[in-house]
Design brief:
Elements: E1 2-10, E2 13-21, E3 28-37, H1 40-47, E4 56-57, E5 61-69, E6 81-84, H2 94-97, H3 105-113, E7 123-125, E8 130-134, E9 144-148, E10 152-154, H4 161-165, H5 170-181, E11 190-193, H6 197-208, E12 214-218, H7 221-229, E13 234-237, H8 243-250, E14 256-261, H9 266-274, E15 276-284, H10 300-304, E16 307-310, H11 318-330, E17 340-344, H12 349-358, E18 363-367
Parallel strand pairs: 4-8, 11-12, 11-14, 12-13, 14-15, 15-16, 17-18
Antiparallel strand pairs: 1-2, 1-4, 2-7, 3-5, 3-9, 3-18, 5-6, 6-10, 7-8
Helix pairs in contact: 5-6
């Protein structure tokens, strides 16, 4: 099958190409994409901050319809609407069996090599059939992609696939960071560093558990206005105000119970930790460059019993959590449609990156012709 895709030919160089796509093998599913969200993780690969092999089809947050299934696939069939999951766990390793499928090493190893589990990539190009790698076992910036069976979550018929695409990364990660990683309780205070796609969903998650206050920190006034729309009770302009002083003022001089870093910079990771109260939790969601290091006051760990932890994919189980999030959306509790700020065509990915970086969108979406 020949499909159009946005190909990262080299770091900083995107081009729309027609690729050859192999059919799904045993345990694999071909998905015809309807929409794919544009995430900072995609940009980290584009910029070279996250060094992965090229050429590569980026994209990892998407939804579409099953086009074909390989041998042994039992959970979906052609025609089913699905959300892609970029962490298709094996279900058998120590991490999966202990209830931490987001730490499964099978997809982690495959993602480092830009392949599916087992080492193959379904995308080819040119007369030589040069392999084209796929980002995070998905490659969602293509008309059709092939993923593991555990990399799709079936949706009810008639689900809005543009909205559903967001469930595959930003919504699942942001809400999971609040509910699972930090286990925020009603009445606890939270601060969110970064009000992009992930940060807005941290705020939604915090609002749904009645956290207060809910403080959004950003350098963009437009993003801070969006933060209010998605649940922030207070905002701080990081380029104009003393962030720590303002947080202390809003929390009676204590600091917040839980701080979330949704940017991926050493300085904001340190700021999130410093913004927490004694006994508080700082949760790092943003993806920093692999060689970045963070400087912290070591005495604060034992003397104040502070916790600094990471959050990978919201510590989620996609098969369990995506349907639950969709039910919350259908009940009117979780706002998804307002997250969609702008739609772009497949050849406009660089424009979508620019809009994401300058803060003019909540979430940019690549949409495909029906």
């Amino acid at each position: 099958m020949r499909v159009r895709a946005s190909v990262l030919a080299d770091y900083g160089l995107l081009q729309e190409e027609e690729l050859e796509l192999d059919g799904p093998g045993p345990g694999e599913v071909a998905v015809r994409l309807s929409a794919a969200g544009v995430c900072h993780s995609d940009y980290h690969v584009f910029s070279g901050d996250l060094p992965l092999p090229t050429p590569m089809v980026l994209g990892h947050e998407g939804a579409g319809v099953v086009a074909a299934v390989g041998a042994g696939v039992a959970t979906v069939r052609p025609g089913d609407p699905v959300v892609l999951s970029w962490l298709p766990s094996c279900g058998r390793c120590r991490f999966c069996l202990s209830g931490r499928p987001e730490l499964c090493r099978v997809p982690a190893t495959a993602a480092q090599h830009g392949t599916l589990p087992g080492g193959r990539t379904p995308f080819r190009r040119g007369v030589t059939r040069e392999p084209v790698y796929q980002f995070s076992l998905t490659g969602a910036f293509a008309e059709v992609t092939v993923v593991p069976e555990s990399g799709v979550v079936r949706l009810p018929p008639g689900t809005d696939l543009e909205v559903a695409a967001l469930l595959g990364c930003s919504v699942l990660t942001g809400t999971g960071a609040v509910w699972r990683t930090a286990a925020v309780r009603p009445g606890e205070s939270v601060a969110v560093f970064g009000s992009g796609g992930i940060g807005l969903n941290v705020l939604q998650g915090a609002q749904l558990v009645s956290a207060y206050p809910r403080i959004a920190i950003d350098v963009s006034q437009r993003r801070l206005a969006a933060a209010i729309e998605f649940g922030a009770t207070h905002t701080v302009r990081a380029d104009q105000d003393s962030v720590l002083d303002r947080i202390l003022e809003l929390t009676g001089g204590l600091g917040v119970d839980a701080a979330f870093e949704a940017i991926g910079r050493p300085e904001t990771i340190a700021a999130a930790f410093n913004a927490t109260c004694a006994g508080g939790r700082a949760v790092v969601i943003g993806v920093a460059p692999p060689n970045a290091e963070v400087g912290l006051n070591a005495f604060a760990f034992p003397s104040q019993e502070k916790t600094l932890t990471g959050c990978w994919y919201g510590q989620s189980s996609p098969a369990r959590d995506i349907p639950a999030l969709l039910r919350l959306h259908n009940a009117g509790s979780l706002r998804l449609r307002p997250l969609l700020s702008q739609r772009y065509g497949l050849g406009e990915l660089e424009r979508a990156f620019e809009a994401m970086l300058d803060g003019s969108v909540n979430r940019a979406l690549i949409v495909f012709d029906p």
